[in-house]
Amino acid sequence: MTDYLAITQQTCSWLLAHPAVLSALYQSIDNGDILALSKGEFAAGPLRLAGTPDGKVAAVWNKEYVSGTGHEAWGIIRLVGPFGLRPPSSIGQQVFERQVYIFNQRLQGLIIDSDFIHRTWPNGSQTCLAGRGTEARQFNVSYFEGGPGFGNLSTKAVIAIGPAHDFDELHSAIGAEISNLSPISLIADGIIDTRRRPLIDAPAFQALRDALSPSQQHEFQFDKVSINATFHQGSSSIASHETAFWTYEDWVSNGALNEAQRRVLESDVLTRHPVRVIGPAGSGKTLLMQLLAIRHLRKAAHVGEEVKIIYIVHNAAMAQSVIDRFRVLGAEDYLTNPVQSIRITTLSEYGRQVSGLTETMVIDKDAQQTKLFQLKQVRDSFRQVLDENREKVAGSVLMKQVAADEDLFSVFSALIVSEISNAIKGRGLTENEKGYVNAETPLSRLHGVLDTVERSIVFATFKRYHAAVFEEFEMLDSDDIALTLAGRLRTPLWRLKRKTEGFDYIFVDEAQLFNENERRIFPYLANGKVAHTAIALALDEAQDLYAFSNAGLATLGIADVEDKNLPSNHRSTREIVDLAFFFIQQTTDLFSNEFPDFKLIEEGMVSSSHQLASPPSIVMCNEDQPSFGRFAVKQVQKLRAGNVRQIAVVCHAETYWKEMVEAFTASGLPLHLMQQRGEKVAPDQPMVILSRPAFVGGQEFDAVFAVGLEQGVVPPRIIDNVALAAAVEQQVLREMYLVTTRARYRYVALLNKLAVPNNILQGAISENKLRKVAVGPT
Description:
By secondary structure, the chain is of the alpha/beta class. The chain has four domains: 4-212, no CATH class; 257-358 and 481-565, 3-Layer(aba) Sandwich (Rossmann fold); 367-475; 574-593 and 603-773, P-loop containing nucleotide triphosphate hydrolases (Rossmann fold, 3-Layer(aba) Sandwich). 38% of the residues lie in helices and 15% in strands. The protein contains 26 helices and 22 strands. It has a nine-stranded mixed sheet with strand order 2-3-4-1-5-9-8-7-6, sandwiched between helices. It has a seven-stranded parallel sheet with strand order 18-19-17-20-21-16-22, sandwiched between helices. α2 crosses α3. The longest helix has 22 residues, at 367-388. The chain is globular.
């Protein structure tokens, strides 16, 4: 029997605004099948229910409202026993509604309505009427609140029992529950972070499922996921090069769109609610976004209405690519038409122009270059802080490892960049070191796993970075631009002007590349002519390599978003796709119930018998090679001799980057050093591309060599910090998935002499997704 039900504060608020869902949730509890959550997860719309394996605790959360810190504010209901919500009673639903109301109020520090006859008791507990009905008003519920510092709580939590008649009995019973408040809250946090569970379809949850999506049961059902799926050749015989110059009419009329793409395009879904277009690499998210934008432009032109659209991309190279594609699609007139117009821009450039910043005031007009500069400056600042604080470093097991291990140092530097953006600048703590270092409530996932000494090192890094960029160079970084723009858009002046200067539709391509500060801006760009934010976000979270914090979209201001899942459309062999999804299956937050059904991967699959194809493999550097870099060059040369034309060498480990650059530069091969995401690569030219994982998104290559996936190197070994080690492993899994999905015919992991494959590769070997290949003397 499930003893406790935990609900996050934001979910309580959402449930109170959706009474039909609240009622259906109680029915699911009342029917008694909640114990099924110990073996699986309920998922419908944005709502999630799951439980602990022993069945003692179940949790309810809305995925759009998670905080991203790893610690939520929980309301906990005692379900069983003489003071539990169950067994069922005639007033059970009213009591449940009252408990949800109490959680929502008290977790936000709001008072309880005086009509509910609220009382406080000597042990710190409180009581109020159990419900709104005549019968329920004869009973009371009792609850106790705890905040940061109470037990092991990191944020506020409330536990409730009842209903009951007798105040003395309630007072005594809640006293026995007080010690459970902190442990159950931590267990509930863990339920959210647990690896993906199988979906459950128990009859008791049908009413809840219907209440969440009554009109959409036939659409986009990708719940039954099979990693070892049987792949079929697609019915479409249209090759990718044939569509390169297709117009909008060609795409709409020639049958190349899959069913999911066509449904989204023809449904005018943006007129009703925000949309998140989800799909893995190769699923056609960007194409669908562009066709959607053109559809709205053409409809407005047909009836003579004015429409303004903004299409936001991450960097200048991507912006130019999108502009070129719109021209090919036949939408060039809309780029200059003042009546039906589309503005294609980076958020950084839009923010610079709206805020009146000159080019000399920003690091770079291109957001990608700005963020690369930020990372370099943070790395330099972090290294200086570590060198200057040797005593602090010596006292921290984590910081000693970071200082000594170049790969861990590189990973941690990237996490500090995110920490500066979201936890320090995003929360307005740039002048408040104590507010960051000594905060009781975790400000981010990283913040929550660091002690005060380690936080002080992070903040010292921020101060040194800020002094260099802001005071010495007198420039603003991308977060400064985003926060400046946000400040401008939150003013009464913008509320007055947004009706004319805002946009009817907002499209955000590759939304995973924007951090939380930037995502908070998107809702303010809407002109407010409709009640919802008319925004479409194309998203592949697997390509967000540094997602240490994952706040829900509703938390960032985009409420009631609807997901549209696209099936994969991989131009890879079955074996490569199978390996890629083996990697992503290991993640705790990506391989979720929204991830498309891999059984539907049909179109564009490369035959495993293709003359260039070979199963994914691991190749070890042999003893007679003078260097690992030279060995990698020889492996590439062998493949080129076999007529493999475009080969990417992706370096996961910072340790090997310089060696790879030097070896391939000296090789005489037609080398292209990829320095940013979205670079154009001629599809018909033979070349060797050397890159880091962060820059290969959106690209395809005949073959991919992955360098550095070795035990203790990637992911780097982290001692005595399990949470951070797990988070870094999640980042590596994202990288490995992303890099693997770039390969059409071959994927090869190259290992240095005497190196051992990392645990992820070893798992792939044991599951027959990857084979070891011996290399003789060369």
